[in-house]
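QA checklist item 7 of 12: single-chain prediction sanity check.
[x] sequence parsed
[x] length recorded as 193
[x] structure emitted
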Amino acid sequence: MNETLSLLLETKRQKYEKVRAETRMLLDTAKTERRINTNQLEVPQFVLIPKRRTIERINTAIAQAQISIDLLLSWKRFSRGIVSTFAESIAGAWAKKVKIRFIIENPLKSKTAKQLFQFCREKPFSQIKFICHCPATVLGIYDEKEVFLIVKPNTDLPDSPALWSSNPSLIAIAEDYFEILWLTAIEDSFQCP
């Protein structure tokens, strides 16, 4: 009788320990999931970058891009960016084989414009198209994960804050807008009326 009771008690104790261990695992899993969800909520999806930090943030985004960059720019911002402001970052992105697509306003005919377009077209990971007007929205999409919108598109870049977002809905809107413009933009500059 003593042996049977001891055996039954041992079996119950083992079942209790097993249930206890499973309960601990469930609690640990729930804590980990809660931490992950809390961290995801803590990552800001919308950030207003002050005007003095816009260039720095864009340089960082270009440097961190691994797959693609889509940019919608005015001629003035494009020419300054390629020649000086973002030249080093863009060269680094091309060296990493990051695909960069530019949609820019059609500039006036000039030797400088032709040289810049030729320079970009010679890069194997670069494409450029033109629209016949200055874009009302200046934006960039990085690896389809991050988007920036310049708050004041008609000012110089150092004088305009930017809205940065990792929000999937805002990124989808920006991508759709960019793709529509890409399909309707022209490939040869100076064809606009």
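[x] summary fact logged: The chain has two domains: 1-41, 46-184.
[ ] second reviewer sign-off
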